[in-house]
Specification:
By secondary structure, the chain is an alpha+beta fold. Helices cover 25% and strands 29% of the residues.
Length: 173
Amino acid sequence: METVRLWLIPGIAFLAIAVSVFTLVRSVRRDRREDADKEEERRTEQAVRVAAWTGDHQADCPSGSQYSYHPHHCLTHNGSQLPVYDVILHVVAPLAELLPGEDPVAMIAIGLVAPGETLVTEVSHCLGVDSQGRMPVGVWFTDMRGTRWYRSPAGDLSEWTDNEVSVGVLVTH
């Protein structure tokens, strides 16, 4: 019986140390994950508040028919408390390649969008499209930290590099 006690006490002590080390490692990993999540949230805080879309249908437009959606404007919204820079709209007209002389993609350089501003940009001069619905709009921009972002026409947000803004027709606003 004495032999069992001699092995039992060190065994319980070893088990307690192992559980303590396991708990400590889990806690450190969780803290690191939480810190990484908070840093990612801080990093994307401004970017998640920037979006672009096509404007209202222009019923009285001579180039649009009563049955089609004919936008003349793109709206770029900066819902953050800080300005965004180097804003470029990426307007995709899905059916434009079916029409002679039309390009399915246009890049429209905006520049700066102030905090809280929704900037309305005339696009009919560079998009001779008469689509059957709202056109998807992507937006490239730089936040106050100098991080460059792209929000795709589908709404996905990702960082971007200079070589990604090379497709389509660039039109300055």
